[in-house]
UniProtKB/TrEMBL annotation, chain A:
Cellular-component GO terms for this entry: elongator holoenzyme complex
Pfam families according to UniProt: ELP6
GO biological process: tRNA wobble uridine modification
PANTHER family (alphabetical): ELONGATOR COMPLEX PROTEIN 6
Name of this protein: Elongator complex protein 6
Family: Belongs to the ELP6 family.
Coiled coil region boundaries: none
InterPro entries linked: ELP6, P-loop_NTPase
From TrEMBL, chain B:
Bias type Acidic residues, positions: 282-298
Region (Disordered): 258-298
Record lineage: Eukaryota, Metazoa, Spiralia, Lophotrochozoa, Mollusca
Keyword S-adenosyl-L-methionine found: no
Listed PANTHER family: ELONGATOR COMPLEX PROTEIN 5
Gene Ontology MF annotations: tRNA binding
Official protein name in the record: Elongator complex protein 5
Protein's organism: Potamilus streckersoni
Keywords: Cytoplasm, Nucleus, tRNA processing
Protein family per UniProt: Belongs to the ELP5 family.
Pathway: tRNA modification; 5-methoxycarbonylmethyl-2-thiouridine-tRNA biosynthesis
Example of a GO biological process term: tRNA wobble uridine modification
GO CC entries: cytosol; elongator holoenzyme complex; nucleus
Subcellular location: Cytoplasm; Nucleus
């Protein structure tokens, strides 16, 4: 959990990002620190978390969380965290190493049946809600993976629609999704998915590399947009960041200590 | 803009196009509010998230007339619930609905048609909207208002939708700090006249449109004209322009290639044979006095 990030997201005692739908996009810079932040942040709030890992293994998240002084293993055994290791399930299904149990029937022959997958997540969330007092959180890292293994845009948008409906409408939970989106590149599908999600979500975080190229003192830019559907204007915060081993520092554009 | 929202200008199908940068929600709410004052019942189909939130801040008197049909709860029909989805035949559904209260004046608001375009086809969406507008016998449909997220679709898909609408309101980012909204409006009047305008406006907390100002496209053109008429010879250190006297003097000058009677006469009057050749031998010339053809016997 990075305290500076909490400040940026205006997190307070009243506002724990309840009922918010956050979409994180990475383009030419690594925004995974945001995912790690949200994971440890919600666990420290004692909120039940369902985490779908589609880009890294469980050990990776566990090690990073340990650095942020958060124990995933303990959370898992206490039932606060449910970790769905998407890549491992898919790998097993392809190689046919293990029989797919009835529980994981959403993975079929190198593809995800998103409807089944949603049903699985839905029952997980309902279980979490029953056992824990607070509203559940769903984090998916990373949604682009589903696009790459052949899910179509309409399917994915439908899937996110249902997740959103389940998480933020029926109970005031939070939904955090990450995806890769390169606005400049020719990957039209990623761009289209990003636009679709931007219309659905309440907060977008865009992590981009510097326009001038890589710098060892400034690792990228973070643009946070609170989308408003009302008369008031959308609120935008833009900042540059530098990642260090256990922390991340934010500063206004061009105000890096290396520059001043 | 305010004429269309308030209903003073009749329009059968209104299409609001928005994008990520500027949400069309407030404009849609203005329509909802003004429609609720004009018709008996508004049928509000929602396929976008937060159906309840989209009705926040609308006066409760107006809310009584709005009936929400939540298409978001089970948008793809995955949950087998009774609520509508994108697969529902909206015309049939609506016919069954309006049978209950016959011959009311109703309006239909769809927020938004983007899921229909994405999960169904464009022709299906166009057909549905046009049938909703014209083929409902059980109720009198006053107006249909649709929101579409224009940046999610190809241009030709949006163009197909635009063809069947009588008013297209395209929301653009406002360049003026004084105004929150900027819209490009294309309105096809009942008489057949087509009006195209670009307007700035603001929306009050109670969703009234005010401060409508037309952005004059012509004013930018005239400023270009003014710029071009600036005299480039004004601040030169030398003289490029001529006074009237100088211009008169210049016109008097006869140039060599110009047709001039005097000069032509002079040339023609010289008689033939008057020309003579004078030859002055050079000193170095080897001049032979003898006739070189002397030896010839002709």
């Amino acid at each position: 959990m990075f305290s500076d990030l909490n400040h940026l997201f205006a997190v307070s005692k009243e506002n724990h990002l309840q009922g918010e739908f956050v979409v994180i996009s990475n383009s030419k810079a690594d925004g995974s620190f945001l995912i790690h932040h949200f994971l440890s942040f919600f666990l420290k709030q004692n909120r039940p978390v369902c985490f779908v890992g589609l880009s890294q293994s469980y050990n990776h998240y566990s090690t990073v969380a340990q650095k942020l002084s958060c124990n995933l293993n303990a959370a898992k055994t206490s039932g606060q965290l449910v970790f769905i290791e998407g890549m491992k399930l898919l790998g097993d299904a392809v190689s046919g190493n293990s029989l797919i149990k009835g529980d994981n029937s959403f993975v079929c022959k190198a593809a995800f049946d998103l409807q089944q997958f949603f049903m699985h997540i839905k029952s997980t969330l309902e279980l979490l809600k029953m056992n824990q007092t607070q509203d559940p959180v769903l984090i998916i890292d990373n949604l682009s993976f589903l696009l790459y293994i052949g899910c179509s845009i309409p399917q994915l948008v439908m899937f996110v629609n249902y997740l959103l409906q389940k998480v933020t409408s029926q109970c005031t939970g939070s939904l955090v999704l990450a995806l890769y989106s390169d606005m400049i590149s020719v990957d039209e599908n990623s761009d289209l998915l990003w636009k679709n999600l931007s219309h659905l979500c309440s907060i977008t975080c865009q992590v981009t590399g510097l326009e001038s190229g890589y710098s060892k003192d400034v690792h990228g830019e973070l643009l946070i947009t609170w989308r408003s559907r009302d008369v008031k204007q959308t609120q935008i915060k833009k900042t540059q960041f530098k990642l260090s081993d256990k922390n991340v520092t934010f500063f206004a554009s061009g105000m890096s200590s290396a520059v001043l | 803009m305010d004429d269309i929202v308030s209903g003073r200008e009749k329009s059968e199908i209104v299409l609001i196009e928005d994008n990520i940068a500027q949400s069309g929600g407030p404009v849609l709410k203005s329509f909802l509010k003004s429609l609720s004052e004009r018709v008996d019942k508004i049928h509000y189909f929602v396929f976008d998230p937060y159906p309840q939130k989209t009705l926040e801040n609308i006066p409760s008197g107006c809310l009584n007339r709005i009936e929400i049909h939540d298409g978001f709860r089970d948008i793809g029909g995955w949950l087998d619930s009774s609520s509508i989805s994108v697969n529902t035949d909206l015309v049939k559904y609506f016919d069954n609905l309006s049978g209950r209260h016959a011959k009311q004046v109703v309006a239909i608001v769809i927020n938004s048609v983007s899921p229909l375009l994405l999960h169904r086809t464009v022709p299906y969406t166009c057909q549905t909207i046009s049938r909703l507008a014209r083929q409902i016998d059980t109720a009198d449909v006053e107006q249909i208002v649709c929101l579409v997220h224009q940046d999610l679709h190809d241009n030709h898909e949006v163009a197909q939708l635009e063809h069947m609408c009588s008013t297209i309101i395209r929301i653009e980012p406002s360049a003026h700090p004084q105004f929150n909204f900027c819209t490009g409006i294309l309105h096809k009047r009942v008489s057949g006249k087509i009006v195209r305008r670009l307007e700035h406006f603001n929306i009050r907390e109670n969703y009234e449109v005010y401060d409508v100002t037309e952005v004059k496209m012509s004013c930018s053109k005239s400023s270009i004209k003014e710029e071009s008429s600036i005299d480039p010879t004004a601040n030169l250190t030398f003289n490029l322009s001529l006074t009237d006297e100088e211009k008169a003097a210049r016109s008097q000058v006869k140039l060599p290639y110009m047709h001039d009677e005097n000069r032509q006469d002079a040339t023609l009057s010289k008689s033939v044979g008057e020309g003579k050749i004078f030859y002055q031998p050079d000193e170095a010339d080897d001049f032979d006095d003898d006739d070189p053809d002397d030896d010839l016997d002709i």
